Amino acid sequence: MPVEISKTAWGGWPNCWRVANGEVEVIVTADVGPRLIRYAYINGPNAFYENTAELGQSGEPDFRVRGGHRLWTAPEQYPRTYAADNFPVDVRTQGALLEATGPVEGNTGLRKQLLVRMAQAGSAVTVIHRIENTLPWPVELSPWTVTMMAPGGIGFTGFPPRGTHPEQLSPTNPLVMWAFTNFADPRWTFLERYLVLRQDAARPSPQKAGLFNEKTWGAYWRDGLLFVKRANAEPGRTYPDFGCSFEIWTNPTTLELETLGPLTKLEPGAMLEHAERWTLHHTPEPTWTDAGLDAVTASVL
Question: What is the residue-wise DSSP string for 217-257?
């Protein structure tokens, strides 16, 4: 059936928008944001994390986690990265395209915009992230998309194609740590071709790692539902965080799949774009081995 876009109430917010094609739906908030707060099969569980204590709220002076999918800026800096997105959003539609534009952030001079386009059949959704510089001087930043996943699942990503020694002597990609990263933590699994991180409510310490992959992607499996997000990175461009195009983070509450664009000197009045492509899949739990994940990714990437 054709894509339908309609206004709806959701999560205590009276002004949300639903993009649906009869198989999947995306809910976009307009009382706060721009945020994509739900992505799911029709009548199915939300793939995204929801902080129920913060749903339906608005107008707070500082940043709220809330859940869902948001657009941040990297490198991570306070207060610029943590600009509050708690205020009304302008939503416009044109055919099957929804455009959600936030107000200019008072402490950054940036304006953020999310464009959502859903396929007429299947689960595919393209999300275009835009950042506009309204300041009279240039700013350097990277678009950083943060997707917060429902708790209790397992996130994973792939390394760039592997090679052999001594045929390939040059390094192929960074693997980046933060000060709190502990690769002895049992939530991590390192395979030849994949990096796996489990979300565990019983473990209080956060964990994070990043890498660069020209064909950037991350996935999350939970209770038979697999979420996949993909983005294209640009070799030769400078990326934040020692060269990361993908980052994965977890704490006791959620797990985040994050993609990043190249660092850009954004001139006054200029706008940058960063695209992600999403899909959902009904998938039995993989075998958490290279062969098991090869079988999954062969059908979804």
Answer: EEEEEETTEEEEEEEE--TTS--HHHH-SEEEEE-SS-EEE
Contact 193, 202 (CB under 8 A): no
Cβ burial of 300 (10 Å; 0-12, 13-18, 19+) is middle
Task: Tell me what percent of the chain is helix, strand and coil, each rounded to the nearest 5.
Answer: 5, 45, 50
Query: How many other CB atoms sit within 10 Å of the CB of residue 252?
Result: 13
Q: What is the CATH number of the domain that holds 72?
A: 2.70.98.10
* 138: its two tokens: 């240039």
pLDDT at position 1: 75
- Interval 73-127: pLDDT, tens: 999 999 999 999 999 999 999 999 999 999 999 999 999 999 999 999 999 999 9
Per DSSP, the three-state class of 275 is strand
Q: How many CB atoms lie within 10 A of CB 270?
A: 13
DSSP state of 110: E
Taking only the tens place, the pLDDT of each residue in 282-298 is: 999 999 999 999 999 99
Predicted confidence (pLDDT) per residue in 128-158, tens digit: 999 999 999 999 999 999 999 999 999 999 9
Q: Count H helices and E strands in the chain, helices first.
A: 2, 21
Q: What is the pLDDT of residue 174?
A: 97
Q: Which residues of 9-19 are buried (b: 16+ CB within 10 A; e: fewer)?
A: ebbebebbbbb
Rounded to two decimals, the pTM is 0.98
* Range of the structural domain that residue 249 is part of: 4-300
Residue 192 CA neighbour count, 13 Å, CB half: 9
In whole angstroms, give the CA distance from residue 218 to residue 280. 12
Pull the structure tokens for residue 222: 């939970």
Token pair of 160 as six digits: 């760039």
What's the mean pLDDT when you consider all of the chain? 97
- The total domain count for the chain is 1
CB 241 within 8 A of CB 176: yes
Q: What is the DSSP letter of 105?
A: P
